[in-house]
Amino acid sequence: MTTWFITGGSRGFGRELVEQALRRGDRVAATLRRPERLDDLAREHGDRLRRWSLDVTDTARVEQVLAEAFAELGRIDVLVSNAGYGVFGAGEDLADEQVEQMIGTNLTASIQLARRAVPHLRAQGGGVFVQLSSMGGHLAFPGFAIYHATKWGVEGYFEALAKEVEPFGIRTVLVEPGQVRTGFFDVAERVPAGEPYRGGPADRAPTPVEEMVGSPSGIAHAIIEAAVSPAPPLRLLLNSDAYELVTTAVRERLAGWEAQRESAGAADAEFTGARH
Ligand SMILES: NC(=O)c1ccc[n+]([C@@H]2O[C@H](COP(=O)([O-])OP(=O)(O)OC[C@H]3O[C@@H](n4cnc5c(N)ncnc54)[C@H](OP(=O)(O)O)[C@@H]3O)[C@@H](O)[C@H]2O)c1
Description:
Layout: E1 3-6, H1 12-23, E2 27-32, H2 39-45, E3 49-53, H3 59-73, E4 78-81, E5 87-88, H4 96-123, E6 127-132, H5 145-165, E7 170-177, H6 184-187, E8 189-190, H7 216-228, E9 235-238, H8 240-258, H9 261-266
Helix pairs in contact: 1-7, 3-4, 4-5
Bound molecules: NADP nicotinamide-adenine-dinucleotide phosphate.
Residues 8, 10-14, 32-34, 55-57, 82-85, 105, 132, 134, 177, 179-180, 182-184, 187 line the site of NADP nicotinamide-adenine-dinucleotide phosphate.
């Protein structure tokens, strides 16, 4: 039996994960802003589901909930840092508070959760830390800049973290889905394009949810399979759109860098005067 700790358990991937883990016979510590959203699963699964109210941006509360969950459950095998949301709009058009809240929720809160979870995982001799990233952690669409900033940040932090904590028996998994039919796009804030951006690249309609290829249950299933496998991958790329878009973006980025071999090397030399 695997024991899970999951943030953002109320809806979308989080709820699917809670549900599928319980159906496997596992134990789940679900954290969410409104614990009553899981009343139905609590009735069905009794003690195997524990719930904590948690807004992931409240770092002191994150620390307290982690301590309580590890103390009550004895061991947590897999922590899933899933809570997150999106804001559509040109980077310039967002209010300062929207920028701060987006970074605070998707990036800073993920880092603070990991910083506080690692000592518990180390003390029990290891475990798996799963962080929700996105295909948007490797490519970037106009009109979604601040979201991309958070997911690219997550990619960098957790790639380094994976190397730091691997000696403690802790495996790190970055989950990189494509576009998936959760409520994510319905609740995402939409900031109308300011005059200079109207009709431009940032002023585009998001993909209609019914055209998205990914299913929430497929994502949760893939996360569970990866997390309980003997060698969880550092990057878990999910969905056909993510595969096409990420491999194309990375190939193009590589070609751009490879074309700069000479100019990159030329910058090694001290600059002693005009070359032209
Ligand atoms: N859907 C996609 O296409 C997609 C693709 C790639 C990556 N992702 C990532 O996957 C994760 C889950 O997304 P989803 O599609 O499942 O979205 P979702 O259906 O909108 O669910 C988001 C979850 O995050 C929670 N949440 C948001 N802010 C929170 C906060 N401050 N504290 C605690 N919980 C908070 C929500 O709780 P409330 O019910 O309280 O609002 C909800 O449980 C996110 O990190 C997202 O960036 C999604």
